[in-house]
Amino acid sequence: MRKTRIISLVVMSVLALSLSVSSPNRTDILSRATTTAASVIKTESTPQLLEDVSIETSAISLWKYDNNKTVSWWLFEQEEEKQIISYLQGINLGDAVSEVDINKLTGKMYGIKMGRRDGTFAAFTWIDGYVFLEDGTAYKADIDFDMIEKYTWQDKNEMSLSLFPNMYYIAQQNGAWNKDFLAKSKKLKSHGLTLRVKNFNGTKLKVKLKNKTKKTLSYSEYFSIQTKIDNSWYEIPAKESMVFNDIATIIKAGVKIDKTYDLSAYGELPAGKYRIVAEGTASVFNIK
Questions:
Q1: Sequence-separated (6 or more) residues with CB below 8 Å from residue 136
Q2: pTM across the whole model
Q3: Low-confidence residues in the chain, pLDDT < 50
C-alpha cells in the first residue's frame, strides 16, 4: 500500500485568517492555494514544487526571460513567501511528460529558486504550461505568474540566460544545444593573460596560462564554458550550481603556469566545439 501525504489545510486556514488584506491579488493567490490543496493527495512518487524549502533561512528568487532579456528579483517578506509557497505547493503536477519539444516553447519563461533546510536549493522553471524540475523531468501545470509578479519583489538584476534555473535540461534536445535557449557570448577583452588547452579527460581541463605582459598580474578561479553554433559562440548553462573561491593568484610578467579546471558541474556535454573562457581570454577544445 502506497504511503500518501495529504496536504493539510489547517496551516493555510490559520494563515488566511491571520493575514491582513493589504492587496486583493495576494489574497486571491492564498485563496486559490487553499481551494487547490483541498483536492490534492500527494503520493511518494509525486513531486511537489519547492518541497522542504526554508522560509526562516532563505529568500525566494524570481526569474523571468522575455524578449531576449533575463532578469531576477528577490522576495524577503516571510509572510509573502508563505503565501507563494502555499500556492505553489498546492499545485498538482500529475504525471511526468515523457518528451517536450523545446522548439515549440515560445512564451515567457519564469523560474523560482529557494534554499532548502539541508542547504541545497529547490528550483523549477515554467514555460508554456510545462514545469521543468531540477532532475530534468517535465510536468504539465498551470501557474499564475502574473499574480506572483505583483508581490513586493526587490533588487532587480539583469542576468545571463545560462544562469536560469534548470536551463541545462531546457537548452538541450536530442543530444544537441538549442541556441534559442542560449545567451550569445559578449566580445572578450583580454587582461594580458593567454590560455591554451593542453588536454581534456571528460571532467578535468588542463591549460597553460601565460602572462604575456611586462607587469605582474593576477587571476581568479572563475571560468565559464561556451559552445560554437553556426559560427557564433554561446554561453552554456551548468548542470549544477557553481561556486568559486574569491581569491586572486599572482602571476609575474612572462611566467607560464599549468592550471586545471574542474568541469564536472557542467555534466555530460553534447558533442561539439567548446571553449573555456577566463580572464577575458579563451581556448578551444572539442568533444566528440
A1: 166, 168, 169
A2: 0.80
A3: 1-24, 27-43
